[in-house]
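Quick one, tokens below. Sequence please?
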């Protein structure tokens, strides 16, 4: 019995155009941003230009429990894990 559906194999799927700037913005928000409390809107002065520092990526393995505790700490304290780790490294090494 045939359902009348046709399946094409080997064909190319249409790809959506992705704006890399929007992707970078989305990634930089991190999972913690969804749990952070929104800050009240206040008029802000123009920020001073910050010195551009070249960054390098670091990967590390954590136990599931350690990762869960780290993420919970970050949500509870309104920070990102990368910021917290950088601060701890600066305090410890420098």
């Amino acid at each position: 019995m045939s359902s009348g559906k046709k399946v094409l194999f080997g064909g190319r799927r249409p790809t959506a155009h992705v704006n890399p700037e929007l992707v970078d913005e989305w990634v930089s928000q991190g999972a913690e941003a969804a749990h952070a409390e929104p800050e009240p809107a206040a008029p802000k002065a123009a920020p001073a230009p910050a010195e551009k520092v070249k960054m390098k990526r670091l990967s590390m393995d954590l136990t599931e429990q350690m990762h869960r505790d780290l993420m919970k700490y970050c949500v509870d304290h309104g920070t990102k894990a990368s910021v917290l780790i950088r601060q701890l490294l600066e305090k410890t090494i420098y």
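The chain has three helices and no strands. The first helix runs from residue 20 to 29.
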